[in-house]
């Protein structure tokens, strides 16, 4: 590796899934250096294999910051989901405990903790950036992205879903929901979208739908991982009998868009980017 | 059966579970007459067996009202859960369609539809009463009802749960939640409390808890079935590793309280009635 003052040294805080790798692939081509912080039982070892990385336990905040300084990191990005663990199950270091003490009620939420971590890093003079600043093409665009345009009944379900998620948002819990003809089949909490889709599939009725709706939380910290969907999400939804996916435009990530569109088109499944401010009055 | 102008003729709109039978047992002893409306695929046939009853399909509103008049019903009570079905899956009669047209957005909710049905019945000069008017002893009382007093960590989880349910209430979806050290493990939608408990059990972490919190929805129509827990709920929760149950005092039903207390005490599981207005500021 070449050390140069002109380079950006990016640290990727690697949650689950392949997104951290995608960032690395993209960033590498720009000639800058990348460094992974990987977390045991969270990060997929294959994603960081062969890359400059360090393994940590969740809760080792000081160790994470030390590693960033050691690698002259000047920017940090969080990529991929990290499920908010029970605090007493963690080996929290002193720095983490101090951080939590500052956090107050925020530590209750799924994203609140990550948001605190981001603040802690920025206090070290290191900038925490959103994924969309590296991979702008993954931000969900507004409008119909694939498949047939939603019918009136599907639009009503999208509205119903957005309404419920909008109420739930400030609680910093769940970011997706399955709706079928106005009936909320399932609300996501800690189980993750894929399990929620499967459950909703088994609870659906013999009518059109259901629809999957995924949006960011009220005042979501954009430095923290945004709601994400990709080919797996769409495949799972189609397998479970869903007929469409609504993602929040400009506030969620759509991975592998070309593959998503291909799968969706083949299955007459719609994918749409919606602006909640235009839909919820 | 004796016909007398002095008697009350009560119609029980029988949802799932044994609650409709309990009402009948209690009401019979008062010497009044009871008449069941049972619904295919909803009401347990054993609950109405040997009782004066009629079977209907969900959506047959006119038929239900005609049956009430034929049986000189002067009071109606709704007992036991009726899952809100997809409207297009129902054989709706003309009366039901007119009712829905009046209902507007209310028809989206789980209870909204039942509330509309209650209004429709009252327009016929028949009074719809809450279950607590017949079985006052099933209303959840405020304070610790069984088991050890909740510790600080459990109180925090109760608050977190109430806060989320309070946000969700106006959407008329779900009325229970599982929380463990601030982490919302599961939110109930259409699957019912028992399935939610099982799921939360499998998602829990290796720390104390989880806690089950169940409360009524904002502006809940008390004529419509209130949130309910009983020995089965507590047994399921204990089996799934839960350590306590918080019910909304005066706004939820606790069935078979003596058995609940026995089971809870034996398992060091707390059952508490909480007044959300005192807890949420």
What does this structure look like?
2 copies of one chain form a homodimer. With 281 residues, chain A is α/β, with parallel strands linked by helices. Chain A folds into 2 domains: 125 residues, Rossmann fold (3-Layer(aba) Sandwich); 141 residues, Cytidine Deaminase, domain 2 (3-Layer(aba) Sandwich). Chain A is 34% helix and 20% strand. Chain A contains 10 helices and 13 strands. A 6-stranded mixed sheet of chain A has the order 6-13-11-9-7-8, with helices on both faces. A 5-stranded parallel sheet of chain A has the order 3-2-1-4-5, sandwiched between helices. Chain A is globular.
Protein topology:
2 copies of one chain form a homodimer.
Chain A: E1 9-14, H1 19-28, E2 33-39, H2 45-48, E3 53-56, H3 61-70, E4 75-79, H4 94-103, H5 112-122, E5 127-129, E6 143-146, H6 152-168, E7 176-180, E8 183-187, H7 193-203, E9 211-214, E10 228-229, H8 231-239, E11 244-248, E12 253-254, H9 257-266, E13 270-274, H10 276-279
Parallel strand pairs in A: 1-2, 1-4, 2-3, 4-5, 9-11, 10-12, 11-13
Antiparallel strand pairs in A: 6-13, 7-8, 7-9
């Amino acid at each position: 590796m070449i050390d140069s003052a002109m380079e950006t040294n990016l640290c990727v805080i690697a949650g689950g899934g392949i997104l951290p790798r995608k960032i690395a692939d993209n960033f590498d081509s720009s000639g800058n250096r990348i460094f992974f912080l990987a977390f045991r039982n969270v990060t997929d070892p294959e994603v960081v294999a062969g890359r400059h990385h360090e393994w940590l336990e969740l809760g080792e905040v000081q160790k994470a910051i030390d590693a960033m300084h050691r690698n002259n990191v000047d920017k940090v990005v969080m990529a991929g989901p990290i499920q908010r663990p029970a605090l007493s199950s963690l080996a929290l270091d002193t720095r983490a405990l101090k951080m939590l003490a500052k956090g107050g009620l925020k530590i209750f939420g799924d994203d609140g903790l990550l948001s605190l971590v981001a603040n802690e890093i920025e206090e070290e003079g290191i900038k925490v950036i959103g994924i969309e600043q590296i991979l702008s093409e993954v931000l969900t665009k507004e409008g119909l992205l694939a498949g047939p345009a939603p019918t009136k009944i599907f639009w009503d379900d999208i509205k119903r879903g957005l309404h419920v998620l909008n109420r739930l948002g400030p609680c910093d819990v769940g970011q997706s929901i399955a709706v079928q003809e106005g009936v909320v089949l399932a609300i996501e909490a800690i189980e993750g979208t894929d399990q929620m889709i499967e459950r909703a599939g088994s609870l659906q009725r013999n009518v059109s739908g259901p629809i999957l709706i995924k949006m960011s939380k009220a005042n979501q910290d954009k430095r923290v991982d945004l709601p994400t969907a990709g080919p797996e999400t769409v495949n799972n939804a189609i397998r479970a009998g869903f007929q469409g996916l609504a993602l929040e435009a400009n506030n969620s990530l759509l991975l592998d868009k070309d593959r998503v569109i291909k799968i969706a088109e083949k299955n007459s499944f719609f994918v749409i980017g919606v602006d909640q401010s235009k839909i919820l009055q």
